[in-house]
Amino acid sequence: xxxxxxxxxxxxxxxxxxxxxxxxxxxxxxxxxxxxxxxxxxxxxxxxxxxxxxxxxxxxxxxxxxxxxxxxxxxxxxxxxxxxxxxxxxxxxxxxxxxxxxxxxxxxxxxxxxxxxxxxxxxxxxxxxxxxxxxxxxxxxxxxxxxxxxxxxxxxxxxxxxxxxxxxxxxxxxxxxxxxxxxxxxxxxxxxxxxxxxxxxxxxxxxxxxxxxxxxxxxxxxxxxxxxxxxxxxxxxxxxxxxxxxxxxxxxxxxxxxxxxxxxxxxxxxxxxxxxxxxxxxxxxxxxxxxxxxxxxxxxxxxxxxxxxxxxxxxxxxxxxxxxxxxxxxxxxxxxxxxxxxxxxxxxxxxxxxxxxxxxxxxxxxxxxxxxxxxxxxxxxxxxxxxxxxxxxxxxxxxxxxx
Length: 403
Fold this sequence. Notes:
mainly alpha, Growth Hormone, Chain: A, 2 domains
C-alpha cells in the first residue's frame, strides 16, 4: 500500500479529509452561484465586488479570532455545528434568491465565509492531530492537496452548469444539502475525531487570540512561513484578473486560447500534486523554495512570452510549482508548531489565502490599466523572487522538523 493511501487508514482522517474537500467545493460553488445572482439582479460589477468583499475578505480578517475561541473545544461537536450553520446560511440564501435583497445576500455570504474559513483552520489542526502520531502527515496532506485542486476547479464549473440548467436557488439548495450531509458524517464519526489539548481554566477568548498571535510571531518557523506566504500569495494572485486581457489582447489570441492558458496551469497543478505525493523524505524547506521559485520563473517567462504556446508552457511550470508550494508550506507549518497551536496557526494561513488575493487583484488590475498585462506579470515575478531570497537566507524549516 502506498504511503498516501496508508493515510486513509488512520482513524478519523477520512471523515476530516472529506469534510475539508466538501467545504472547498461548496464554498466555490456557492460563491460563484451568488456572483451570478448578484450580477443578474443588479447588473453592477460594484455589487459583485461587494459580495466578494463580504464573503471572502472580511471573514478572513475575523476568522482567526473565532478559530482561537473554538480550537480548545471538542472537534466532534464544533465542526458538525459549523457545517450545520453553513447549511442554514445557504438555505437562507436559497430562500431569498427569488426575492432578491442585496444587503441580506451580503450578510449571509459573510456568515458563510466566516464559518468556512474557521472550519478549514480547525480541520487542519485536527488533521495534524490524527496524522502526526501515525507519521503520515505529509502523505495525508498530499492526498488533501490533490482533492483540494480538483474541488477548487470543480466548484465554479459545477455552479455554472447547475445555474444554467436549474437556476441559482437550486444551486444554493444543493449546496445547503452538501453541508448538512457532511455535518451528519462528522457526527457519525465523532468517536474517531481527536480530543482538544488541555487549556488553562478561565482562559478567555481574547487571551487565546493574543497568545496565538504571540506564539506565531515569536516562533522561529511559523512566523516566517505565514508572513512570507502572505506576501507570496499577494504576488501569486496579482495576475488572476488580467489573464483574459493578457491572452486575448497582449498575445492576440481567442477565447479558446485563454481557456488553454488556464487549463495549462491546471495541468501543472495536477503534476505538482503528484510530485509532492512522491516527495517523501525530501526537505520541506527545499520544496517550498523550489516550488515558489518555479511560480516566479513562470511569471517572468510569461511577461516576455511572444506566443501563446510559450505562455502555456510557462503556465504548466507555474501550475506545477503551485501544486507543491501551498501544501509544502502548510505541512512545514504543521510539523513545526506544537499541538496546542495547530488550529490557530493553520487558521492564520487559511485566512491569508482568503484575504490577500483581493489586494492582489486591485494591484494587478491597476498595473494593467496603467501600462499592460506584461508589467503585472513582471511585478509578480520580481515580488516572488524577493520572497524566495528572503526565505533562503536561513532554513525555513529547522532540520529537526523535516522528515
